[in-house]
Design brief:
about 300 residues; alpha/beta; Rossmann fold; globular; disordered C terminus; binds iron/sulfur cluster
């Protein structure tokens, strides 16, 4: 008689917050292990409206969006995956709000779905070991689990390289766009800004989160430290300005923005910050970007040679 195989649970994941920190990784990992994965859709206006309704009003916008993305998917799956992000970089810590995500989700959605989690602490153990631990918790093992972890890490590296190549200005003059990965790669957040820059003929590139070997850093928060490291290595002849996309109520950014401003002032590189929130905070952004780009004399820069 054939042995009855148990159906694997359907795993849901919000396309928000930590999803953008580790692009492609989790989906590839679960699929290689044979799980069906469903993800929430892209952030749209309705997501933001939902976030304003269901999330804690004091949260930063990315956390509110995470709640709204969860709300969209929790009823269509068996379990939802939410990692506990403690560190994404050796010698650094993550924003403490990312360490509480599974607990917050349990408090808010625990009566609707079971939550699967794993500690991601790259200060203590490589990401691959966290994947193996997660897989074992789901009943996987052996060679299949190891190859799923390796394939997922490859997928993440490839996706990051494609993201980087998609906005590589080469040797040309450009603007650097700073921000946490979820502010940059959620196109609802960054899209209007990028479209405006492109309409102004401005080349730009995102800060690179694939960087692992940083110079000794004064900042302990991982993403902020990567941003700071990127600023220290800027070439004034190529980088015409820096634009930072921040979120209203972001505790980490509120500490580092002053440091970034001082550093860029020393280097003679113009800097502006744009703060995102759920109340159409980007209204008026066009005018601010135009003024910033004009003040730098971008058009002159195009005809200098
Ligand atoms: S770093 Fe800032 S934007 Fe990101 S989760 Fe923490 S408070 Fe929110």
């Amino acid at each position: 008689m054939r042995k009855k195989t148990q159906k694997k649970p359907v795993i849901a994941m919000p396309s928000a917050l930590w999803y953008h920190h580790y692009p492609g990784l989790w989906t590839a990992f679960f699929r290689h292990l044979g799980f069906t994965v469903i993800r929430s859709g892209e952030t749209v206006r309705k997501t933001v409206e939902r976030a304003a309704l269901i999330s804690e009003s004091e949260h930063c916008l990315p956390l509110k969006l995470h709640d709204a993305h969860l709300d969209e998917i929790v009823d269509g799956a068996d379990v939802v995956f939410i990692p506990r992000i403690l560190s994404t970089l050796p010698d650094h810590i993550a924003c403490p709000k990312l360490g509480a995500l599974p607990d917050c989700a349990r408090a808010q959605f625990g009566d609707r779905i079971r939550i699967v989690t794993v500690d991601v602490d790259e200060d203590k153990r490589p990401l691959r070991r966290s994947l193996l631990r997660l897989g074992r918790g789901l009943g996987a093992g052996g060679r299949r689990l190891r190859s799923a972890a390796d394939a997922a890490l490859d997928e993440m590296r490839n996706l990051r390289n494609r993201q980087k190549a998609g906005c590589d200005p080469g040797e040309d003059e450009h603007f650097l766009i700073l921000g946490h990965p979820y502010n940059l790669h959620d196109r609802y957040m960054s899209g209007p800004i990028l479209s405006k820059l492109e309409a102004l003929g401005v080349r730009w590139r995102f800060v690179d989160y694939g960087v692992r070997n940083l110079e000794p850093e004064p900042i302990r928060w991982d993403a902020c430290s990567i941003m700071h490291d990127a600023l220290r290595g800027l070439d004034r002849r190529r980088c015409m300005g820096v634009i930072q996309l921040s979120s209203f109520n972001c505790g980490c950014d509120s500490v580092v923005i002053g440091m970034f401003r001082d550093l860029l002032k020393e280097q003679g590189i113009p800097y502006m910050t744009l703060v995102l929130d759920e109340n159409e905070a980007l209204a008026g952004v066009d005018t601010r970007l135009e003024a910033f780009v004009d003040s730098i004399g971008w058009k002159n820069a195009q005809t200098r040679f």
